[in-house]
Amino acid sequence: SKRYKEIFTLYIDGFTHKQIAKKLGISVGTSKSNLFKAKKNIKKYLKNGQWTTTRSYRAFRRSVWLDTCIN
User: Fold this and answer.
1) What distance in Å separates the CA atoms of residue 9 and residue 4, rounded to the nearest whole number?
2) What is the pLDDT of residues 28-57, one digit of tens each?
């Protein structure tokens, strides 16, 4: 979902769950849960061999691929 992507992006930009929660108006628990689900979707996507190009996390998170796998 759009929320998973938003939380994932903030987290890899260095925000803590407390900061993410405050910024998005959600609880810390929701931030953690959504990040877990986003990572789970990414792992599933990678396991299926649908991502083959090596990129840094910064380039990776901004790619169109992120829109595709986190839904």
Assistant:
1) 8
2) 999 999 999 998 888 877 776 655 554 555
Q: How far apart are CA 30 and CA 60, in angstroms?
A: 24
Interaxial angle between packed helices 2-12 and 28-47, expressed in degrees from 0 to 180 and rounded to the nearest 10: 100
CB neighbour list of residue 7: distance below 8 Å, 6 or more residues apart:
20, 24, 31, 34, 35, 38
Q: 67 Cβ partners below 8 Å, 6+ apart?
A: 5
Q: Coil, strand, or helix at residue 71?
A: coil
Q: Is the pTM of this model over 0.90?
A: no
Q: What's the token pair of residue 19?
A: 């900061």
Six-digit token string for 53: 């190009």
